[in-house]
UniProtKB/TrEMBL annotation:
This is Cytochrome bc1 complex Rieske iron-sulfur subunit. PANTHER family: CYTOCHROME B-C1 COMPLEX SUBUNIT RIESKE, MITOCHONDRIAL (PTHR10134). Its main location: membrane. Belongs to the Rieske iron-sulfur protein family. It is a multi-pass membrane protein. One of its GO terms (molecular function) is monooxygenase activity. It comes from the Bacteria. GO terms for cellular component: plasma membrane. Keywords: 2Fe-2S, Cell membrane, Disulfide bond, Electron transport, Iron, Iron-sulfur, Membrane, Metal-binding, Oxidoreductase, Respiratory chain, Transmembrane, Transmembrane helix, Transport. The keyword Transmembrane applies. It comes from Corynebacterium poyangense.
Amino acid sequence: MSNEKKNYTPQELNSMSNDELARLGTELDGVTVAYRKERFPVDNDPASKRASRAVGTFLVLSIIGAIGFLGVYLFWPWRYKGLGADGMWLYTFYTPLLGVCGALAIGCLGLAVVTYVKKIVPEEISVQRRHDGPSDEVDRRTITALLNDSWTTSTLGRRKVLAGMLGASGILAGLAIILPMGGMIRNPWKPGVLGLQGDGTLWTSGWTLKSKNVKLYLGRDTGAIAALEKGDKDHPNAVTHASTAGIARLVRMRPEDLDAGSMETVFPLPDELVNDKDRHDPKRDVYTEHMHSIHGPRNAVMLIRLRHKDAQEVVERKGQEDFHYGDFYAYSKICTHIGCPTSLYEAQTNRILCPCHQSQFDAKMYGKPLFGPAARALPQLPIEVDEEGYLVAKGDFIEPVGPAFWERES
């Protein structure tokens, strides 16, 4: 325990200098400064300038990295570009640039702090005796003096340029850490523009376009890829570019295109994006829009054609008795457990299987779950055949697709 007087009056404390208050504070706290050595006791020491330049270099690199990160995050093209598409190389460098700039901003800031402490802040060894209970008035008054003393002995106060750079680097590096988190926070109920992937809310998909009186065909994925165009007469075998003109990734389906006891994955194909059969235009390019439909997170639908005998045994869900067309039933391919694709259909038992957690659904009983963790039936898409004999959506899903259990009432 320190034997130092503790009952100082406010007048006595006010009369003390900062150094005296700092010394008093260490004594009252039971702190003994066993060793302290200035790094640069001589003014204008060249070693001091070298240390400052080293710290400044790290801070400049940190600021450059942070500004680069913010610039890339805000302005660099980030939307997906496929092979051969314009801007693919810029898109390819988006994530690596974020990583490099972020590492530069945070890493160099850390190196600057470590370098400053190791090379500029005085060496000191202090020992403190611990005590219990709250601090008294004298301790509270002297703690500010101790902090001021720490600031003074660090010499950062008279290194204005380094102090400013350290503050700027800390702020920018903090923004580089915090800003990307904004992309993780969004309002799931805020709608955007309704398109082939819905309007951004949890309850919409490409099939929701039907609510806007858009004619939607059940589009079969052909798996077609871009055609490689050859070079000119001087280089006949050289590939110059890839073209998707005239290529239809999604095509319309007729009932006879699907055998009994089989399943086909289909996606929403708006009437304005049809480019197959009698409406094929070799110069028209709808490939990108078709891929947007295929990549829609809630667009995939299983079109199942039951055997006619099995179709006679189907149990319809109340309110959905007219959702099917003959022996054809369309169920969402998104598992109601955690959203995996229910991509397996067992024709012998008419069961739909999810390979992720082995949930099983009965295609003959409105997609009702029979086994596994899924507790809700697969949403059913109402379908029909148009005047030309093509399978089309008769309406949108009447319940949320996938594991959006917070949207469901049952």
